[in-house]
Structures are given as structure tokens and as C-alpha cells.
Amino acid sequence: MFKLFRFLKPYWWQVIILLLATGLQVYTTLRLPALMADIINNGIVTGDTNYIWMTGLKMIGLTVISALGSLVSSYFAARVGTNFARDVRTAIFTKVINFNLLDLKSFSTASLLTRTTNDVNQVQNVMIMIFLIMLRAPLFLVISIIMAIQTAPDMSWIILVGAAAILGSAITIISIVMPKFKVFQNLIDKITLITRENLTGLKVVRAFDNENLEKTKFKKANDKLTRLLIFIDRILELQNPLINIIFNGTTLLCSWVGISLLSKDFAYLGNMTAFAQYVTFVMMSFLMMSMLFVMLPRANVSAHRINEVLKKPMRIRWREKTSGMPEKTASVEFKNVDFIYPEAEEKILDNVSFKAVAGETTAFIGSTGSGKSTLINLVPRFYEATGGKVLVNGLPVENYAKEDLIAKIGFVPQRGMLFAGTVRSNIKFGVPNASDEQMKKAARIAQAENFIEKLPDKYNSHVAQGGTNVSGGQKQRLSIARAICKNPDIFIFDDAFSALDMRTDARLREALKEVTNDTVTLIVAQRVSTIKDADQIIVLDNGKVVGKGKHFELLKKCQVYQEIVKSQLSEAEFKKEVAMAGRAKYD
Q1: Who has the most CB within 10 Å: 149, 456, 549, 582?
Q2: Three-state SS for 326?
Q3: 547 — phi, psi (to 5°)?
């Protein structure tokens, strides 16, 4: 919890005002019992009306000052607490948005959502309570005890009895519920995960008529959370009756002891009254602190979960400034590149070498799990090669500043990801300042222009979160248009044509030639028809390059490629391709 206090640094002056206002409130409030004792002893007992009026006016003035102090401290506590939560959420989001793909796998999406929302709210609430209680209660406690002892030293032992009883009950309750708060947060993560999975995969759930199964899974997790909350609430609710018993018992004890002393000296009346009020302040201080101590364990669990994200070491560190001078001509080169996932036993990529140059298309094909997507993810440093070198424009990728490397790459992932907004904002996502002419050109090349023009508001038409209000093919074409609009040195298409029909696929690849004359084009594909005309085809099998060349060349000499082609064509078509390969000539 205390590790998060660094986020309070920008608000130090507000915290100082809060402390001063709290001190003023405590001082003025604790002066009132002493003045009340003076009114009784020196005014009521002696019948001095003027003294009563003068002291009463002082009490009214102190009450007003106390109220103002409370108002100021409450205002700044809320202000600082809210700004603190905002900064923590921003820090978590900034950290997560800079995670590479391996870093993200350390946390589930549901857990990151919970940590950014629920956990931050828990810490924020306790932070405000700390400002309102943790600063105020100790002052009340210490000063009240001192003034109570000065007022009625014969009754001071009552405070020790009450304080010991409250502390004992608070420690007992905390020791029971504290281990349960971590379980509670994990169950919140689980419920968030189940809910997110079902909302995302609703079509699949309904297609397999598995609503009842998913309801059962949710009910199981929800019931477990409910039982845990009931247990925690039952334990916490014990606090109120225990505090009431201790509070009333202490008050009764004060009255009993005070009356016995009053029978010996009637002038003790004012002191007894003031002492009773100071004891009330002491008990209330312990009560507020015990409430805070019950809330602290839960907030501490949340703070620990937040710090897990913020302190997560980044596997990939970027340079602040690019080191070296990239070549002007675009290229991507792999030199004996290996890649293995942490704690994995086998390499995903093993000694991969090739060079892709400007004006040519390099395609990657292979069976599922052969390492195609992992390979191209090394170019923008989504992953870091564990061996060898990846060079972009002749410069190793680790020598680049992040913005310099990403500026050179137009990336289209397997799943076309769209963001809530408009068609315009999604196409211009990589270059917000792009002209409308540049945007429309990108849409035309991506074969998205026709369906965009049919939308009610054309380029200003609404796009739902995740692009749920457009088809898979439309989503993919908008993703391709987004990459084209960026006008990069390197295009990376990670199976980005899979949702397109053969006709649209062919038109799009033909239109791409308009913008790929001076760029490197890397394509990962499952369909041979998509990469058939590529200048260079890299065939991967279990992470190794088993073939390199053009379509007919590979069809003639690479068995793995032959098997892939054969699996996608009829026997007659395959024989025709093989015959053409036999007649083909290569450079």
C-alpha cells in the first residue's frame, strides 16, 4: 500500500493544507469539553451568568472554526484521493499498453481489467479514509488522553480498559478476514473472465446450445463469491455490537466512578463531565481506527495486485533514440534467428535466415504451429529474438527507438481489430493527420470503398467496439486500409486475407502493387492462391526453413510445399500445377 504513496507527490501542498485543517479541527473540537467544564465549575456552580455567556460564545466560535476545518479537510481528502486514483489508473494503462505479447501473457485480460477498476477503487476509498481518519483519529486519541488525564487523573485507568478491549476485538477480526480478501479478489477476476468469455464468444455458446453449461460455470463462481462475502460480512458485522458493548460499558464505568468521586467533592462535576466527553473522543478514535484497520487488509491486497503490474519488468527495452543510421532502401533481414518462449523446451523458430527487399513480396507458409506468425511478430518487436539478428533497413531492431521502428511498419493482424469510433477514425488510426484523399485512396486499394460508400454516413459511419457491427471481411479490409493509409516502408499481412473471397483477394493483391513498389511486403497466408505470385516464398516446418523460392520452383523441389498445395487443390489441378512447374524457368 505504501509503495503507491509516490503518486501523492504532485499533491504535497494539498496534503499539507489537509493536515493543517485537520489539526485545526481537532484542536478546536477538543477545547470544547474543557470550556464546558469551566462553565459548570465557574459559571453554573457559582451562578456567574456573564461567565456562562462569555464562555458559551467562545464555544460557538470554536464550533464554527471546527466545522470549517472539517469542510476543508474533507474537500482536499476527496480531491487528492480522486486525483491519486486517476494517476494510478493512468500508470497501469500506460504500463499495460507498453507490454509486449509475452508480458501480457503474465496476466489475464480479466485480471488486468479488475486491477484497473475494482482494485484502484478499493485503494482510493481507503486513501480517502486515511486522510479523513488516519490523520484525525490519532490526534484525537493522543490529545484526548492527555487532556482526560489532566482533567480527572483518578479516572484515567478507564481509558486503558476501553482501549485494550477495542484493540483486542479489532485485531481478532482482522486476523480472521485478512486471508479472505485475496481469495475475494481472485474470485472477482474469475467472474470477470467468465463474463468476458461469454460476451466475446456468445455466437459459439449459442451455436452449440451450451447456455446451461455456461450458466452453471457462472453460478458456481458466483455462489462461491457470495458465500465468501457472507462470511466476511458476518465477521465484520460483529464489530458493531462489540464496539457498542465496549462503548456503553466504558460510559457506564465513567458514570459509576465519577458519581462515587462526586459524592466526596461536588466541584468534581465539571471535571467528570469533561472527562466523559474526552473518553467518548478516545473511544470514537479507536472505533474509527479499527474500522480503517479492517478496510486496510483488503486495500493492501488490491495495492499488491496493482504493484504486480506496475513493477512487472519489461522483457523488451527500447532505446530513447535510434542508434545508427538505417539504410534508405527498405529491407527486412533475418540472420540465424532463434526464438523460444520462456520456460518452453522446444524452439518455435530455429536458425531462420532470409532477406526481403523493397519492391518484392515475401510470403510465409507452413502448417499450423510452424512459427509463421511468431516470425513476423519479431519485426515490430512484439517478441524479442532469443538468438540471431533481425534487421530493418539494415539496422538491428534493438537499435531503434520505438516510434522510429513502428513508423516504418504497417501491420495487419490475423484478426482485424477495429476500435469504437467511425470508419474515418479507424482508417486514420496510425496517422490522425492524414488527408481525406489519403484515407480514400487507402480504402479504394483495400477494396473497402464500395461498402463504405453504401453506409448511411459513409466515412463518418459509426463503428462499434471491436467492429461488431461490420462483417469479418469488411473488418479485415478496414484493417488493411489502416495499414495502407500509414504509407510505411514495410507491410506485414498476418493471414490478413483469410476472410476475403477469392475474387476480392485477387483484386486487392493487384491493387496493392500501386503502393508496394518501394516497400517490403511480408505476407503470412494459409491459401496458396494468396502467395502464388510472391517473389519469394519461405516454407516453414516446425520452426525451420525447409524451402525458399518461387511457387513453381518450390513445387518442383520442396516436399512440404507440395503437400500444402496438394491439400488445397483437386488431383487434376495439382497435376496441372506440377506440369507447369516442370516447364517453368527461374531466374
Answers
A1: 549
A2: coil
A3: -160, 145
Three-state secondary structure along 87-143? HHHHHHHHHHHCCCHHHHCCCCHHHHHHHHHHHHHHHHHHHHHHHHHHCHHHHHHHH
Contacting residues for 98 by C-beta, under 8 A, at least 6 apart: 314
Q: Is-contact 185 299, C-beta < 8 A? A: no
Cell for 200? Answer: 466475446
Residue 315: exposure state from Cβ atoms within 10 A (0-12, 13-18, ≥19): middle
User: Quick one: pLDDT at residue 261?
Assistant: 60
**CB–CB of 311/92 below 8 Å?**
no
- Dihedral, 261, 262, 268, 274 alpha carbons, nearest 10: 90
Q: Phi and psi of 421, rounded to 5°?
A: 160, -130
Residues 6+ apart with CB under 8 A from 188: 114, 118, 225
Q: Which three cell numbers stand for residue 501?
A: 473471397
**Domain residue ranges of the chain, discontinuous segments joined by +:** 2-310, 325-408+489-549, 416-487
Distance CA 442, CA 482 (A): 7
Fold classification of 325-408+489-549 is Rossmann fold (3.40.50)
Residues of the chain under the 50 pLDDT cut: 587
Pairing of strands 520-524, 361-366: parallel
CA distance 419 to 427: 10
Cα separation values, 421 from 240, 429, 457, 462, 483, Å? 50, 10, 13, 6, 17
pLDDT in the model for residue 463: 82
Burial label for 249, CB within 10 Å (0-12, 13-18, 19+), is middle
Helices within 311-392 (DSSP H only): 372-377
| DSSP H or E segment with residue 521 | strand 520-524
Biggest CA pair distance of the chain: 126
Torsion of CA 253, 259, 260, 265, to 10 degrees: 140
Third-level CATH fold of 2-310 = ABC transporter transmembrane region fold (1.20.1560)
- Cα–Cα distance measured from residue 330 to residue 409, given in angstroms and rounded to the nearest whole number: 10
Q: According to the model, what pLDDT value does residue 10 have?
A: 85
Q: Which three cell numbers stand for residue 316?
A: 523488451
In this structure, what are the phi and psi dihedrals at residue 453, rounded to the nearest 5 degrees? -65, -20
| C-alpha to C-alpha distance for 413 and 383, rounded to whole angstroms | 14
| Common-topology check for domains 2-310 and 325-408+489-549 | no
C-alpha to C-alpha distance for 442 and 427, rounded to whole angstroms: 8
What global pTM score does this model have?
0.68
- Compute the residue count for the chain: 587
Determine the topology of domain 416-487 in CATH.
Rossmann fold (3.40.50)
484: nearest Cα among 534, 524, 448, 525: 448
Q: In what order do the strands lie in the sheet with 361-366?
A: 409-412, 490-494, 520-524, 361-366, 536-541, 544-549
Neighbouring residues of 268: CB distance < 8 A, sequence distance ≥ 6:
152, 258, 261, 262
Q: Which pLDDT value is given to residue 14?
A: 85
The confidence score (pLDDT) of residue 268 equals: 56
